[in-house]
């Protein structure tokens, strides 16, 4: 009898722990995603890295350039996030604008793939 009560108690404890732990991991995932977006914003606005503001109006960036298009409604313009990554990376297939002044950031080693992914995550929020 005591063993069955103990098993019920341990089972209830295990279930309640699993229920409580699930939201914590989803909160951590959301915080990680927000952190990635913030890192992408820093890279995109950094003069020594992405420097997207030199050519594009974007978000709350100060003193944007006007060589490139404004970075707004990016989810609508690039429903496939990989195509936006390819555009920033600089694959020849993604260069739909002939004689574009946008440098191929990945191809030329200006930014790493991880840095480009973070910038794309940020730009996707615009």
TrEMBL record:
Keywords: Heme, Iron, Metal-binding, Signal. Residues 35-126 form the Cytochrome c domain. GO terms for molecular function: electron transfer activity; heme binding; metal ion binding. Residues 1-21 form the signal peptide. SUPFAM superfamilies: Cytochrome c. Gene3D superfamilies: Cytochrome c-like domain. It holds the Pfam family Cytochrom_C. This is Sulfur oxidation c-type cytochrome SoxX. The gene is soxX.
């Amino acid at each position: 009898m005591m063993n069955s009560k103990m098993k019920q108690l341990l089972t209830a404890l295990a279930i309640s722990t699993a229920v409580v732990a699930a939201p914590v991991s989803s909160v951590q995932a959301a915080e990680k995603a927000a952190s990635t977006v913030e890192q992408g914003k820093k890279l995109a606005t950094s003069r020594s890295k992405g420097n997207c503001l030199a050519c594009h109006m974007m978000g709350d960036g100060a003193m944007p350039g006007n060589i490139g298009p404004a970075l707004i409604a990016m989810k609508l313009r690039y429903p496939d996030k990989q195509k936006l990554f390819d555009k920033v990376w600089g694959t020849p297939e993604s260069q739909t604008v002939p004689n574009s002044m946008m440098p191929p950031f990945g191809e030329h080693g200006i930014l790493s793939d991880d840095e480009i992914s973070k910038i794309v995550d940020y730009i996707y929020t615009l």
